[in-house]
């Protein structure tokens, strides 16, 4: 099965590279992802497939609008990620998975490739857009990373929108928690205060039978040649003890560097992506002369050897995005000044 996935990924990379080889380098470019995992055609209804594609297109539209108007890569990746944080289809912001205690705890990070500044947050519970909080940490504090109640308090102090924790609740994710805890023989927490009554939320279909690493992210190159990356997640279902994954760890799930010529956002088994320092290593490979696609695939293979599944999106200074994954699918999309927007879900899609 793994060999089959690798072959599909190589075919995707070849088709993508060949299609773009005839084009001039774009002035600006944007790529996004909405999580990787066991995502196969049989696991999605036509309505679910269409809903994910529309959601990805919406994120591309938001980010590309910034870039088309001459805006910065940093503004573009934040705009794209915020759209996905507000969409309950994704495991970030509204729609995040629940901890074993029945809470949504949110992580995010941003990095500006032009000056190597970065910001991240972990364990947020009341800040509507964690990616905005991560950027505020970068630009409006002397720190790189803030966690827990202090991070929410900081976000509120700089004027970022605060919401009741029930804002992030979705029935689909709650039922996912109930299922996971039941299978593990662990107690089910009380339904969160303020959550809608069972059956009150409309769903496009019953909960998906999928193992998905539902992080969202974006990488961009703007018309001034600046790179940026942003990533946001709700983590893993039924996580305990204040667990934090790779997303807010600069160099693991998120990294951008103009000197290295790359921007990276990752999605996958966070514990392994931290150990493999996935995002930073991809940039180091590119700085050493590797092509973006080759660098991404090599690093994903390294994480896979450790036991970690997932995927990455990579942007180089030439504006040509690369996608690499060790899974059967990754929600993803790309658009640039020279290429029309396209979205994909399954590993064998060009």
From TrEMBL:
Substrate binds at residues 243-246, 267-270. SUPFAM superfamilies: N-terminal nucleophile aminohydrolases (Ntn hydrolases). Keywords: Autocatalytic cleavage, Hydrolase, Protease, Signal. It comes from Brevundimonas vesicularis (Pseudomonas vesicularis). This is Isoaspartyl peptidase. InterPro entries: Ntn_hydrolases_N (IPR029055), Peptidase_T2 (IPR000246). It comes from the Bacteria. Gene3D superfamilies: (Glycosyl)asparaginase. It holds the Pfam family Asparaginase_2.
